[in-house]
Amino acid sequence: MFRLLFAGGIQECARALAGDIARRYPAALANSPEPLVSQRRRSEILETVFLQARQFSQEHRLGVIGQIRLGGALKWQLKEMGYDEEFIDMAAEHLAASVAREPT
């Protein structure tokens, strides 16, 4: 039972993160052949959004498997929202780096 609730929490967190990304950096901008937003600004957006993921990871004590599941869930959410694979992979890398950091 706990495991199902926890899995739902990961899915809900991924949905919230993807929604926040879509609000700050829509798929139309991310998928544009000409960069409309600088790489630095994209990184800042992702870092800001993934502060929530880091907090979720620390509160729920996500282990390696939980972090992987969160990353996979985020990838699926972004794919469903129409983001291209390049952006999805970059976002997943930022997420992994964010949740893997030691608490300060």
Account of the 3D structure:
The chain has a domain at 39-104. The protein starts with a helix and ends with a helix. The chain is mostly helical and 104 residues long. It has five helices and no strands. The model is unreliable at 1-5 (pLDDT under 50). Helix content is 78%, strand content 0%. The protein has helices at residues 2-24, 27-30, 39-59, 64-80, 85-100. The protein is globular and about 40 Å long.
Short description:
By secondary structure, the chain is an all-alpha fold.
Descriptive labels:
disordered N terminus; mainly alpha; 78% helix; single chain; globular; 104 residues
Helix content: over 70%
Gap between N and C termini = 32 Å
Radius of gyration: 14 Å
> Hey, roughly how much beta strand do the residues contain?
under 5%
Quaternary structure type: single chain
- Mean pLDDT level: 88
Task: Catalogue the unreliable spans.
Answer: 1-5
Number of helical regions: 5
Report the strand count: 0
Approximate shape: globular
Main structural class: mainly alpha
Compressed to H and E, one letter per element, the order equals HHHHH
